[in-house]
Write the structure tokens for this entry.
Amino acid sequence: SVAVYSDADRDAPWLEWSSEAYRIGPAGARESYLDQRALLEVLKQTRADALHPGYGFLAENAEFARRITDQDVTFIRPAARWIEDMGHKTKARDLAKEYGLPVGAGSGVLSGVPAEIVAAARKIGYPLLVKPAGGGGGIGMLTARDDEELVAAVEKSASLAQRSFSSAEVYLERLVERPRHVELQLMADNFGNCMHLFERDCSVQRRHQKVIEEAAAPGIPRATIDTLAGDIAGKLGDAGYNNIGTVEMLMDGDGKFAFLEMNTRLQVEHGVTEEVTGIDIVKTQIRLAEDHKLADVVPNAPTLDGHAIEARVYAEDPKRFFPSPGKLEVFRPPVATGVRIETGYREGLDVTPHYDPLLAKVIVKRATRDKAIDDTIEALEAFEVRGVKSNIPALITILNSDPFRA
């Protein structure tokens, strides 16, 4: 295995786990992890036969996918056309409709003409979300409850989208108040076979970004989810989807689902699904990319066992949620049976302002949801972080709250 790193990550623990490690540039992402030329050069030097893009940076860049496959290197992801189509939110909505998935009210890409924007909004009805068509991570998502708010939100969202995603295209979606965010994990081979690994509930978010995820989704009838997921897996298999992916849905107060987006990559929160199914999703990704058939990789129908919760520990202020870069003077994750920790840090390393401030994922699986909640809280209470602020107090407050338990 070959790892790559920027100057900011030169002492990262994961470099020791690889067979070889190569520097690809300075700390800034544009000069390292987003530098396609540098990554292609490492591929050439090492004669690697495959590349796994992870879940950030170039993971959903169709141009990069094509450049990799043009080198006769396997890209451990769905085909570039899927990355391209699902990476553009309005195209993805159109495809979802084409495949018969439930899709909420929304618009196409907006023009810059205020009268046309207002007309599109009134056709859908307020309240609305303004969203970048080519974005993700909650960036540029703004609420509008009337015409005046809308025009200002579109202008601001387009500006943020241009800076973050090099595209100012934005569109409208009907805002679902107090939704449940439920996503379906899919895996498919190169031969038209697709299955689901149940669902994850990712409703606990800040700034439209997930902080607590769990599997299975509490309080939703099993038959409802299985029917929905089975139907979607069948349709995407027929359409030729390959490798893994996640269909994200919003559920309203009446229990109706609507397509939100599809991520054609590994999800940060894949670990909770691994815990309740016993299936190693990354290993499966690699084997599917090697042209193995799904039935050979996952020979038995997946089943759910117990309940798993993931809490994302961030270097950030636990009240205002602003990033908190600095030196990890103390960084001691809990060590306990059945508590899984995933991290790219160790004590003494710096948390830089260059990347997402995620420090670690704490994943706990237990026989029941209540026990999983209790033991996740216990694990977080035992997690020592000093030198930077962390969101651990916020996570514990949320997990302890009556609304979350209910």
Summary: The chain has a mean pLDDT of 95. The longest strand covers residues 194-206. The chain has 13 helices and 19 strands.
